[in-house]
Amino acid sequence: MAKPSGKKPGKNEPQPYSKVITKEAKTDKGLFTVHKVDEKYFYEIPDTLFEREMLMVTRIAKTASGLGFGGGKLSEQVLRWQKK
Q1: What share of the chain is helix, strand, coil (3-state, %, to 5)?
Q2: CA distance linking residue 40 with residue 2, whole number of Å
Q3: Residue in 73, 34, 43, 36 with CA at minimum distance from that of residue 55
Q4: pLDDT truncated to tens, each residue of the chain (84 aa)?
């Protein structure tokens, strides 16, 4: 078993999960899990969803009373998640 070196992770090295996704994180579970920590979003994407095309549709959830457009589509994009 490897022993901890006592070094701090560098800027481009992965940080421990508990240091990134803190107790203050707001989490939403669905197709994949989304965490909001401060003003940053973190996604937990299952391996089964990588390299697959997905259609992302942006819709207006709600508007001010009487304006309409609620549920209206703004845009759509095809995206593919990749590991780096």
Answers
A1: 10, 35, 60
A2: 32
A3: 73
A4: 455 556 666 677 889 999 999 999 999 999 999 999 999 999 999 999 999 999 988 877 777 776 666 667 778 899 998 987
Q: Whole-angstrom Cα distance, residue 56 to residue 54? A: 6
What amino acid is encoded at 13 in this protein?
E
**pLDDT at residue 71, as a whole number:** 66
CB 29, CB 23: distance < 8 Å? no
3-state class (DSSP) for residue 49: helix
Question: Of 23, 30, 58, 27, which is closest to residue 46 (Cα–Cα)?
Answer: 30
pTM given for the model: 0.62
CA atoms of 45 and 35, how far apart (whole Å): 11
